[in-house]
Write a structure and sequence with these properties.
This protein is mostly helical. Among the domains are: 162 residues, no CATH class; 193 residues, no CATH class. It is built from 21 helices and no strands. Helix 15 runs antiparallel to helix 17. The longest helix has 34 residues. The radius of gyration is 24 Å and the shape is globular.
Length: 516
């Protein structure tokens, strides 16, 4: 098993990169071979059949649809489309989405006094299945709608589906975004240096910050009864930091690795914790999944005759604003249900779909009232303090929803959230942990805690620069004078070697979003 923080992955990058640029006319074939090698060594080899199956369904279905497509699709085309989507989604449900049918099946058997037929892990979940399934569905629909042309070469389609840097944790790319996979790329100083810098930045976020935060979070969640009271608030506030640096760090590594090969992948994050409301947050977090859900779920749904009639009736009965609001809220609900389902668990339907959809819909519904309230209270909405309040509020809203990611079940998540408030009444109130050194006994000593806090500040400064300059801080560094620029590079390299968590006794934590 090799992950994207392992030495084997970087050996694959180094060896593969040398061969890749030595044979420019065969680069897409080399990329495919590297992708297949990575898949076989990073996952259970037989699960490659799932990836091969999804790619085969996409290849033949889109070839048929394109061959018979003129200006309008026939009923047979639509039948092929629905069959292809049914097979691809069914494949995903059988493996990555098994919680949706195993849990109800066990519950029904228990209800009738029968032994649960499905216990434990029946089979390995194919690596990256949620990502390549979404990518395949998008490709089939794009070909059906005429947005993309089907591949005539099966192996080129297979490369689009399993390009190895993005296979583990995305981003979810469209066909037109990866057209450069099949084009020759010259060895470029800018691509190599930018790719390595981005990769190192991601490793720093993951191995210096996210893994340290994960030790504290895991210690508290590992014994919630012993670590009660304000310890739960520590876990609540620190877990979003862990998730962000883990997931965005992974994206930095993936985008940097692809850039070394001359491939530019779509960005998946845009400083989400600077968002002023939860709607803006989800436009900046996991961007490619959100765009996928809007393009292939929400917009087609809103264009259906049923939703058009609903909008017209609501407009006639409740007015213009509600005529827009109600259909949009229903379309948004479908988006969030699809995103919750994509995460592969029933608890995600609650923690992702219902929870965030509720706050998004409530915010949209009450927006005029909030605007009147701020005017009445004479609140200056352009000052830093108001923006800080909005960002902190958004952070907390996201943090409460993230509990459902970390908890083992809906019951545990609800119990944890309840304990954050009942601690004031049940004798678990323990404010002294903030000052008596108790926080240094959660798996990190004082030195590691200091490193983590410094890393948080560095990431915060970098994200602030990204936000206000409207460009990556890496680009800003690359524009500086030679001595300053390389001084930062060398300093970052030694910081990663010195403070990164790795070595023979260290078991690198798996990426949180690697399980989807």
């Amino acid at each position: 098993m090799i992950g994207i923080t392992s030495g084997y992955f970087f050996l694959l990058l180094l060896g593969g990169g040398i061969i890749y640029y030595a044979l420019p006319k065969k680069q897409w074939i080399i990329s495919l071979v590297l992708s297949l090698l990575y898949y076989f060594f990073a996952s259970t080899p037989w699960t490659f059949l799932c990836l091969l199956g999804a790619s085969t369904i996409a290849f033949f279905s889109t070839k048929y649809i394109a061959r018979s497509y003129n200006e309008t699709h026939s009923k047979k085309d639509k039948g092929i489309l629905f069959l292809a989507l049914f097979l691809v989604i069914g494949l995903w449900l059988g493996f990555a989405g098994r919680d949706f049918w195993i849990t109800p099946a066990n519950a029904i058997c228990t209800m009738f006094g029968r032994e649960m037929p499905f216990q434990g892990s029946l089979w390995a979940v194919p690596m990256g299945m949620g990502y390549y399934t979404a990518q395949v569905i998008g490709y089939i629909l794009d070909c059906y709608m005429g947005v993309a042309k089907p591949h005539n070469n099966f192996f080129k389609l297979l490369l689009f589906v399993c390009f190895f840097p993005q296979l583990t944790t995305g981003p979810i790319s469209r066909s037109h975004q990866l057209e450069s996979l099949y084009q020759p790329h010259q060895l470029s100083y800018d691509n190599i240096t930018h790719g390595i810098q981005r990769l190192m930045w991601g490793l720093g976020k993951k191995m210096i910050l996210a893994d340290r935060a994960g030790i504290i979070v895991n210690t508290i969640w590992g014994n919630l009864s012993a670590y009660n009271g304000y310890y739960h608030w520590v876990a609540l506030l620190l877990y979003p930091v862990q998730m962000y640096c883990d997931f965005s760090g992974c994206m930095d590594i993936v985008i940097g690795a692809a850039r070394i090969f001359g491939i530019k992948l779509p960005e998946n994050f845009k400083n989400p914790f600077f968002s002023r409301n939860i709607q803006e947050f989800w436009q900046r977090w996991h961007i490619t999944l959100g765009n996928w859900a809007k393009d292939y779920v929400m917009y087609p749904l809103l264009k259906t005759p049923l939703m058009i009639r609903l909008s017209s009736r609501c407009k006639h009965k409740f007015g213009k604003r509600m005529g827009r609001f109600i259909p949009t809220a229903l379309g948004s609900l479908m988006v969030w249900l699809s995103m919750g389902i994509w995460h592969g668990g029933i608890k995600h339907i609650v923690g992702v779909s219902i929870y965030y959809w509720f706050f998004l819909t409530l915010g949209d519904l009450l927006k005029p009232a909030f605007s009147k309230l701020t005017d009445f209270l004479k609140i200056d909405t352009k000052v830093f303090s108001w923006h800080l309040f909005q960002s902190l509020r958004t952070y907390l809203i996201y943090g409460f929803g993230a509990v459902f990611f970390r908890a083992g079940s809906i019951k545990e998540a609800v119990g944890f959230i309840g304990s954050l408030f009942t601690m004031f009444f049940n004798g678990e109130y323990n404010p002294w942990i903030w000052v008596d050194g108790s926080l240094n006994h959660l798996g990190l000593d004082y030195k590691d805690m200091t490193v983590m806090i410094c890393a948080v500040l560095i990431v915060l400064i970098a994200e602030s620069m990204n936000e206000h300059m409207n460009k990556p801080v890496i680009t800003w560094v690359a524009q500086q004078n030679l001595v300053f620029r390389w001084g930062l590079y060398i300093l970052g390299f030694f910081a990663l070697i010195t403070f990164g968590l790795y070595g023979p006794d260290y078991n690198a934590a798996a990426f949180i979003y690697g399980g989807f």
